[in-house]
Amino acid sequence: MSDAVIFSIIESPVHPNFSSLYAQHGLQEVRAESMRKAISLLRKHTPSVVVAEFFYGYGSNYAGINISNVDVFLLSLQKYKSDARVILLVDKTERKFVDKLAEQYPLHAILTYPVSSKDIELALQGL
Question: CB 3.0-4.6 Å disulfide test: which of 1, 15, 25, 83 passes with 10?
Fold first, then answer.
């Protein structure tokens, strides 16, 4: 598993730092501070796992066909590697909106804050 890549898309200070856990599991972490940066990294790296935060678009930047901040990345991910495991971290107030996204894109796990290292370990099992 040493060649497995995990994308950490960290768009807020709430995103937990699991870098040491990823290293323990033999995952090479690639970090991005925005979805735009993560999309550009897809040209260089093929992730086996993606851990990203979910933010529902309350009619502002994501109005129209997009549900959240993650939509465009997930569409791009299908182009490069459609079988990557996607783990979304979501605030409990926005959890109800993730199901709509899951109807359009395959999601491996949806973890509600606060997210522990044990939660991530369970989501990473079977890689």
Answer: 15
